[in-house]
Design a protein that fits this description.
single chain; 267 residues; alpha+beta; Sortase, Chain: A; eight-stranded mixed barrel; two-stranded antiparallel ribbon; 1 helix
């Protein structure tokens, strides 16, 4: 019979091993927590900081290249948004625009055709309601366009001022999130697109709050949702479409804001 109160070496070793295991597990959990925290900080703060600064520098570079900024342009500022849908590349139909305000023409009145290279920033999108001013680049690749804080032009859609649909995508969260506050747009708000040769003004007309990420109807020449057909248009026109992910911090669905071309003037 063992004497009471005596702890044998085997028991001590088991207790020590148990304490070491608990301590090691705690260290692993703390390390994992720190790594996850750093990843969150990188995604939600660092990528926004870097992308916004890069986008602002690109806007300034385009303005220097074009000359004096267009009168009435808003001051550069941060907008907000994650995840535009899809990835794309290549060139789109070329185009220009002409005509007086309210009577746009697709005859190439700007004296040249817009034919941007893949991932080239070639225009500036301004939305006063959102204090937003960002570059527009060709294609909607995340790595080459959207993650730089730019807004991307969908392959196969029209260029600014052309008859049809000038369709764009932008992140709603992280990487500059230019379209974070897209739901704040209301009918009658203005959207300006500046190129080397002209300034195009679109007026917000309709909003599709939520649709499938595969709803390609929203960027067709006559935009109309194939998932929710009551949203969209039935007649040809001069449209702009802004798309982003919804709800925030997900990429499950898309939302779209549509506008119509209401003015054009040379730079």
């Amino acid at each position: 019979m063992r004497a009471p109160g005596i702890v044998h070496h085997g028991t001590r070793r088991r207790r020590a091993a148990y304490r070491r295991a608990v301590w090691s597990a705690a260290e692993v959990l703390v390390t994992v927590g720190v790594v996850l925290l750093l990843l969150v900080v990188h995604q939600l703060w660092w990528t926004n900081r870097e992308a916004r600064h890069g986008a602002e520098r690109k806007v300034q570079a385009l303005e220097r290249e074009w000359g004096t900024p267009a009168a009435g342009s808003p001051t550069p500022g941060a907008g907000g948004g994650s995840g535009a849908g899809g990835s794309g590349d290549g060139k789109t139909a070329a185009g220009g625009a002409g005509g007086s305000a309210g009577q746009p023409s697709s005859s190439g009145g700007n004296g040249g055709r817009i034919q941007p290279r893949w991932s080239q920033a070639y225009a500036v999108l301004s939305i006063p309601r959102l204090s937003l001013r960002v570059p527009v680049a060709e294609g909607v690749s995340k790595a080459d366009v959207l993650n730089k804080g730019y807004v991307g032009h969908y392959k196969g859609t029209q260029q600014p001022g052309q008859a049809g649909n000038f369709a764009l995508a932008g992140h709603r969260n992280t990487h500059g999130e230019p379209f974070r506050y897209l739901p704040r747009l209301r009918r009658g708000d203005t959207i300006t697109v500046e190129t080397r040769t002209a300034v195009y003004t679109y007026t917000v007309d309709r909003t599709l709050p939520q649709t499938s990420s595969r709803d390609g109807g929203v960027i067709r020449p006559v935009p109309r949702s194939t998932v929710r057909p009551s949203y969209g248009y039935s007649q040809p026109g001069y449209y702009i479409t802004l798309t982003t992910c919804t709800p925030e911090y997900t990429s499950r669905y898309r939302m779209a804001v549509w506008g119509k071309l209401t003015a054009m003037r040379p730079r």
